[in-house]
Amino acid sequence: MGFLWSLIIGGVIGWLAGLIMGRDIPGGIIGNIIAGFIGAWLGSMILGNWGPVIGDFYFIPALIGAVVLVFIVSLIMGSMRRGRS
């Protein structure tokens, strides 16, 4: 049950990061979950472990890390689109 809860919270974190940035994450629900997990890792590496813990994620660093990840992915995807045109 803990793994399922982590997947749900990871998806919510990725979804919130997409909302904050105003950009969709490629891959839909799976992309949101991946962005949440990678964002949690990235946020913990940059900011450390602090804030409320939800589903084995430190929520604030995970959300900030996911926002950074969405920003980087949107830059890469934008440059790829411009390169095709």
Automatic annotation (TrEMBL):
Bilayer-crossing regions: 6-22, 29-51, 57-77
GO CC terms, sorted: plasma membrane
Family: Belongs to the UPF0410 family.
First-listed, main subcellular location of the protein, grouped into a coarse class: membrane
Coiled-coil ranges (or none): none
Name assigned to this protein: Putative membrane protein YeaQ/YmgE (Transglycosylase-associated protein family)
Highest taxon in the source lineage: Bacteria
Membrane as UniProt keyword: yes
Keyword terms: Cell membrane, Membrane, Transmembrane, Transmembrane helix
Membrane topology: Multi-pass membrane protein
Biological source species: Fontibacillus phaseoli
PANTHER family: UPF0410 PROTEIN YMGE
Subcellular location: Cell membrane
